[in-house]
Each structure stands twice: as structure tokens, then as C-alpha cells.
Amino acid sequence: MRRLVALVFACALGGGVAYAHIMVSPPESKAGVSQNYELRVHNEAKVATTSLDLEIPEGITVLDVAAPATGSYTTTKTGTRITAVSWQVEVPSNKYVALKFTAKNPEGAKEVRWNVRQRLADGSIVEWSDKPGATEKASVTKISAATSPAESSKSEPEHKSE
């Protein structure tokens, strides 16, 4: 048993370079709703994260971006649609930050992939995407079909009477 524990521990330590755990939360949502999202960054790099660039997937409409507690953000638009959010924030090594935004989900069921570019204080960049050459995998949100109108009308009177 000790050997197994030692082996698991050794594999965990030598399992590669960890930069962070970056994900967009929640990992599941409903079609057509306005959803409060968070870009969650757990920095495991030896240097601070200095900025994060989030590409907004097709079909997602950003409604609002909350200002971070420290730092700032900018948005990139194509026409009137926000296509990217860039946060200039310092996330020290072994620290965590949640960057909040609200978006309207697409109308149909689908998986959306959130591509993120993480910049570190040493000048390195970590790509979190499914693009060729990316360092890490993109975060995925599963958008499930909205409830049917019949189901919605059954539950609506209960909500109104409360």
C-alpha cells in the first residue's frame, strides 16, 4: 500500500508543468437563458498571471462584464457583439481569481468552447483551446435544450404564487 501511495505521489509531482486550472463555470447551462459565468483561474505557475484573454464563442452574447476587484478589463467587438474580453489582473502564484460576466446563451442545444490566452509575468503565453498547438484544452459548457412551452407553463403558476 505504501508503494502505491508513493507511486501516485511521484506521478503527481512529475506529471508535467502545470500552469493553472482555467475554466468557465458553470459547465452546464440552458439554451436561451441569461447566465452568470465566471472565468476561474487557479494559478499554479511559478510566476504571476498578468492578463487573460477570453474569446466569446459564436452564439454567446455578452450582456455585462463585472469589473475585477483589482485590475481592469477591455472588450473587443465585431459590430455590436462582444467577441473577446481581456482582463489585466495579477494572479500571484498559487492564488485564485474568479472573473465574472453575464451572457445570453444560444437558443439551441450545443457545446460551447471557451478559448483563453493566459499571459505570465515571465513573458510566456499559455493557450487554453482546441486549436492546433494549444498548450491546454479549452473549457467547455454544455448548453442543453430549453424546457418545452408545456413544461414552462406548468411550472409558471407555482412561481407566481410564491
Write the layout of secondary structure elements.
Layout: H1 2-13, E1 20-25, E2 28-30, E3 34-43, E4 49-55, E5 61-65, E6 72-78, E7 81-88, E8 96-104, E9 110-114, E10 116-120, E11 125-128, E12 139-144, H2 149-161
Parallel strand pairs: 2-12
Antiparallel strand pairs: 1-3, 3-8, 4-7, 4-10, 5-8, 6-7, 9-12, 10-11
| CA(first)-CA(last) distance | 55 Å
What is the structural class? alpha+beta
How much strand? over 45%
* CATH class descriptor: Mainly Beta
3D shape: globular
Question: Major sheet: size, sense and barrel closure?
Answer: 5 strands, antiparallel
Proportion of residues in helical segments: 10-25%
Task: Give an overview of the whole structure.
The strands form three sheets. A five-stranded antiparallel sheet has the order 6-7-4-10-11, with no helix packed on it. A four-stranded antiparallel sheet has the order 1-3-8-5, with no helix packed on it. The N and C termini lie far apart (55 Å). It has two helices and twelve strands. It is globular, with a radius of gyration of 19 Å. It is 15% helix and 46% strand. The protein has a single domain, classed as Uncharacterised protein YcnI-like PF07987, DUF1775 (Immunoglobulin-like), CATH 2.60.40.2230.
Structure summary:
The protein has 162 residues and is α+β, with helices and mostly antiparallel strands. The protein contains two helices and twelve strands. The relative contact order is 0.23.
Keyphrases for this structure?
Immunoglobulin-like, 5-stranded antiparallel β-sheet, disordered C terminus
